[in-house]
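new request in #modeling-help
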Amino acid sequence: MAFLEISNIQKRFGSQTAVHDFSISIEKGEFITFLGPSGCGKTTILRMLAGFETPSIGSIVFDGKDVTHVPTNQRNVGMVFQSYALFPNMTVAENIGFGLKVANAGKAEIENRVREMLKLIKLDALADRYPWQMSGGQQQRVALARALANKPKVLLLDEPLSALDAKIRISLREEIRELQRALGITTVFVTHDQEEALSISDRIVVLNEGRVEQTGTPSSIYNFPRTRFVASFIGTLNQLSGEVVDTAKGEIRVGTQTLITSNPLDDLRNGQPCTLAIRPEAITLDDAGAGKNTVQTLVDDVSFLGSIVRIRTHLGSESLSMDVFNDPNQKLPVRGDTVSLSFAFENLLVLA
Amino acid sequence: MSVATKESRLGAWIAMGIGTTYFLLPLIATFEFSLRMKRGEYSFEAYNVVFGDPQFQATFGYSIVMAIATIFVGVLLVVPTAYWVHLRMPKLRPLVEFITLLPLVIPAIVIVFGYLRMYNSSSIIPLTGSERATDFLLVCSYVTLSLPYMYRSVDTGLRTIDVRTLTEAAEVLGANRATILLRVIFPNISSAILSGAFLTFAVVVGEFTMASLLDRPAFGPYLQLMGANRAYEPSALAIIAFIVTWASMGLINVFGRNAHTKPTR
């Protein structure tokens, strides 16, 4: 049995269903992310794990114990909130030690544990500061230390980086991941930021309108999106309208050109319209080699994005963008040029 | 500076001068009269008589005790109520606010007559049957009277903190509701509670109607008695009552300023 088992949970608020029949098994020490746009139900699921909401149906099991109806303060979970939620009337040390004090731990035990946590988050010197005397990044690290001080079974993070600026977000998410690996704590992370999810997760659950769109590793989610929503939500994606020519050979007509995909077309039949997708970085500016499609396109625009140069073209009435690494020595096409673009058969995805 | 600006500033100063004179002149006159007890000279003789009067000491002491008891009961009643409304029933907030404002609308004499009907010595809860029980009834009536001020202050304090998230953060760390109230909520709205407390103090110390009709030896009835029978001492008492009220208001400002130097989020 998995360490954290969520079985068929559903959450209704009046006539609205926020979460539809959600199930997942999470192993001990796994870092799993719920990813999706606002209102997709990811925070509702997290709140059910924490005990702030009760599932309308279904069950939640932590380490073999059914906690579906167990009050929050008896679940032994740690939680980090988007707004940090540090207690303004307490110092950093008091905040971190709060859970242990509530549990009637001894003074020496509390002091030792607080010292240990401060060392872990590298804020030893700020023990006597109040939250309002610290930056957002520091506050969130204290919130993390506070959540971990009680040695919880599961760590829950509700968009902990959303309120921070970009640079701090990147450094803190790496710190969170390092800490999680070092402690081996089962972690559930909620975010709407795909880059965050892709960079630190063992697995990602992509949610939309209360339903699971896809579950998988960051690589599989990014490279092999199974639905139109996942494909368009994760990364940048070219979407092309086509018509199936031959399901056995994987041939699909896009405009006047026939492309080949090595991805299965089992759910489609000849002559059926379909949506194809291809990542901009999977396209190259050259002629086809073995196992590659080649298309002739007209350049509409070339945008310099720093380390990446985005070339926007069109294939018939379809827009097709490609990304190349910035190379000052490379001659790039200009607007109006006709160029040959190629991409491997397996990179041409077929969306449900 | 433009002529228009100069004129508007002059107008503001004139308005302030008239307003200040309107409020201060009667006070100055009262104070001046209170110094005239000894014929032919200004002295604090009236104040000496007042402070030396055993009845003043007894009634003022009694009213202070009543005020402290009212503050204590009021805080115990209002803080958990306001907290629960913020946390679980935010839609009921306008209704609760309306209820807490009723004592401002219903005259004190109506409230106390209602008490006398409900709790007289022939009812099932004969609170007027003994002195201590009547003291308790008086405290309850003072809590009702000070409800608008205490609730408003506490509600304002709760609005400056994220009640829900702080509660959830504490719950996740193992705290129950009582611990959350004592260790998280109360400390973070202490300035607001103190503001409400000082307002309550000012209201209770000078209150007359309820104390008089319940026949309790409070400061308000003593003020009225002195006013009916003496000349200079009532003026001295009026100044003392003003000082008590102003001190309470001043302390509200002090604690309110301290709250602003320490952001809650």
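bot summary: The interface with chain B takes residues 50-52, 71-79, 81, 83, 85-89, 98-99, 102-103, 130, 132, 146-147, 150 of chain A (CB under 8 Å).
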